[in-house]
Specification:
Layout lengths: L25 E9 L3 H19 L5 E12 L2 E11 L6 H4 L8 E9 L2 E7 L7 E11 L19 E5 L38 E11 L5 H25 L1 H4 L4 H27 L1
Parallel strand pairs: 1-7
Antiparallel strand pairs: 1-8, 2-3, 3-4, 4-5, 5-6, 6-8
Helix pairs in contact: 1-3, 1-5
Amino acid sequence: VFLSRSSDPACCSFVHDSTPPPSTMKLLEYRIPLPLTCEEYRIGQLFSVAKASKQETTGDTGVEVLLNEPFEKDGRSGQYTHKIYHLGSRLPGWIAAILPANMLKLEEKAWNAFPYCRTELSNPSMGDRFTYTIESKHFDDDRGEQENVLEIEAKQLKNRTVTVLDIADPVNECLEDPASFTSVKSGRGPFPKGWFAAANPVMCAYKLVTIEFRYWGLQGKVENFVTGIQGGILAKFHKQVVCWMDEWYGMSMEDVRAFETRLAEEMKQSIEAKAKEAKK
């Protein structure tokens, strides 16, 4: 039984029954046109993940990088990362109230074999009752017009929702605005709504998000909550990739790996310092 942090048993929000409810898996496909080449995006994405992770490491939240190393798996090779996301107060109150403290973190394993990438999020306490994966493919000279590039099985296509994200559209809590941004280094921009119809260069990131949360009493609410925020999360990140262009444009892979290593060490020190403070 999972109880809220309240000592009142009446506050119990759901029961961990031995038999999980039937699957209501959500399949969300996002198509994100970008004013970049795939090779530029490869650098910009890595830079922006590291910078955004550093920005998120504040208070009781943060990103802990456990591994960042080359891999070979299933005929693919690239970079493997293993991270822990300490969620803390970033979670809505109604979720934080029903989960034990040891569940307020997510483990991320990612295999970046660009142009194909796969990310898996899990929580050891939830096991296979919680599934959250993102598969990505990237194509040059693409405006999001290809169908089923992520090879969804025919029987699952009916469960798929397709959304084209325009980086010009406003997103809550996002300061970056490609619609008014012009890159000094590349000369590209601004990017008003519908910019990608005639843009050059242009590429598209296709992302398939699979979400499943199999707990009685919370399944629909949690899946709908994650579904509701997922588009905004992806839109915000890709706005940042574009608007931070002058910070990463011209970087080599060696440059961006060094940047990742430096920020990972800074985040580690920050998390360790907070842990020591909490023990006082």
